[in-house]
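Hi all, posting the design record for the shared folder.

TITLE: backbone redesign
STEP: 1 of 1
STRUCTURE INPUT:
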């Protein structure tokens, strides 16, 4: 069913594995809505969360997911840890490994750091976002939200808009949506949309109006200023004028198009605040809800593999 020791990225997952994970997550989401407690399938297991970068929703979501399934969950404050004292990532990993956890959830500012860590420890590792590389659980929760709203996860046209260059969310979504045979259109200023993504089958444009024509899903991205080292955009105001999503630009999309954002949002920069709150089109709240369910499914599937070793 899910034949992987770790969840490091969408790359390498087969469509059937993605579907199995989403089916399991959907069952958890439905159970949560009906108020039924899930079985404590992770009882007796230890989950350690190591976030080397700040996070609100992803960290809270992984904590809740583990707790709801009965795991002992420990979140390390990595900013205050011995990393500050000069310890390397590998030394930290080996120290934690000696405590024999079953699952480690890692977020790290460097692309590839989570893969490196996974190669050094004995337990299952889940990537909660590494640099600009991958953020697999975000793409999975986006996919589940789309599937629930659109009734399918294939043959849709999805626009991913904004700061693609610095976004691990975009990369993981491009891989997942492509694997499930959707059309992906990337929209943004040329400085923020690498042409290389055309090789993955994406259409690329710098014109919002043209790019949004006929799309079923509009996925907005945050301007990742902390990853920019120069002038990628003229000004936030100019950026909103050309690339910020508001009700008027959205008119180019299909009438039943949904609007998504992984959070945290910059209201008035990449998305108009009123549109983000409009429950007739925005599914941003549901994305957060699906996040917990997807992480429950991912933790459960990896734990099943780890305990079978
Ligand atoms: C994203 C991330 O950290 O990559 N946020 C998230 O996980 N919900 C996107 C972002 O920071 O803009």
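Okay, here is what came back for every position:
SEQUENCE:
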């Amino acid at each position: 069913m899910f034949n992987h020791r770790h969840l490091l990225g969408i790359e390498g997952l087969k469509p059937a594995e993605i579907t199995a994970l989403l089916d399991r997550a959907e069952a958890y989401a439905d159970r949560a809505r009906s108020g039924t407690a899930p079985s404590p399938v992770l009882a007796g297991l230890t989950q350690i969360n190591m976030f080397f970068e700040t996070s609100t929703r992803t960290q809270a979501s992984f904590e809740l997911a583990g707790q709801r399934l009965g795991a002992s969950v420990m979140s390390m404050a990595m900013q205050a840890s011995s990393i500050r004292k000069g310890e390397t990532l590998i030394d930290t990993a080996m120290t934690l490994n000696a405590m024999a956890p079953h699952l480690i959830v890692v977020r790290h500012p460097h692309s590839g750091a989570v893969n490196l860590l996974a190669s050094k420890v004995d337990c299952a590792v889940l990537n909660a976002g590494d640099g600009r590389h991958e953020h697999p659980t975000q793409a999975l929760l986006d996919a589940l939200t789309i599937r629930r709203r659109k009734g399918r996860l294939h043959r849709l046209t999805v626009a991913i808009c904004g700061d693609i260059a610095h976004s691990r969310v975009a990369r993981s979504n491009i891989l997942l949506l492509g694997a499930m045979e959707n059309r992906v259109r990337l929209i943004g200023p040329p400085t923020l949309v690498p042409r290389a993504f055309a090789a993955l089958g994406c259409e690329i444009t710098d014109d919002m109006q043209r790019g949004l024509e006929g799309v079923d899903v509009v996925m907005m991205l945050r301007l990742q200023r902390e990853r920019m080292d120069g002038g990628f955009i003229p000004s936030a105001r100019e950026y909103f004028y050309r690339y910020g999503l508001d009700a008027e630009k959205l008119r180019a999309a299909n009438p039943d198009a949904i609007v998504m954002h992984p959070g945290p949002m910059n209201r008035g920069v990449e998305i108009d605040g009123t549109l983000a709150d409009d429950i007739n089109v925005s599914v941003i709240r549901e994305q957060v809800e699906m996040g917990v369910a997807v992480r429950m499914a991912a933790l459960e599937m990896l734990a099943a593999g780890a305990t079978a070793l």
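COMMENT: The chain has eleven helices and nine strands.
Let me know if anyone wants the other runs.
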